[in-house]
Specification:
This protein has about 120 residues and is α+β, with helices and mostly antiparallel strands. The protein contains two helices and five strands; from the N terminus they run ββααβββ. The chain has a three-stranded antiparallel sheet with strand order 3-4-5, with helices on one face. A hairpin with a 4-residue loop joins β1 and β2. The longest helix has 16 residues. The chain is globular, with a radius of gyration of 15 Å. It starts with a strand and ends with a strand. About 15% of the residues are buried. The model has no long low-confidence stretch (mean pLDDT about 90).
């Protein structure tokens, strides 16, 4: 992992290159937003699987989500750990915020996962 194409979400374009912290941040966003085992372009170890959390107890889903995020990010050696998990449960979704520790600095991340 290292230098990669820059994805500009505001312009919906891919151009230029990024490295270091920006590349790690972009990689984390992609890993956390790609459904694991769903797209043939990615290896089976890439992405995160949220699908079978629907219908589960919120407490179980929160702990399982924490494990799955840690597992998903472990494929990239730039990520050194995760800390400061915070969960919020609404009727049909689980919101999670956490900090990804990298060799370049910390990345704050938030996700919403449907559980109902």
């Amino acid at each position: 992992p290292g230098r990669t194409w820059y994805i500009d979400k505001t312009l919906n374009r891919i151009y230029g290159e990024v490295d270091g912290y920006a590349a790690a941040r972009q990689a984390a966003e992609i890993i956390l937003n790609v459904d694991r085992f769903w797209y043939q372009i990615y290896s089976p170890s890439f992405g995160t699987d949220y699908r079978n959390l629907v219908g589960q107890d919120a407490g179980y889903a929160a702990m399982e989500l924490q494990r799955r995020i840690r597992d998903a990010l472990s494929v990239d050696r730039r990520f050194t750990g995760i800390r400061d998990y915070s969960f919020t449960h609404d009727k049909d979704k689980l919101s999670i915020s956490f900090v990804i520790m990298t060799v370049f600095g910390d990345i704050e991340e938030e996700l919403e996962v449907p559980i109902a």
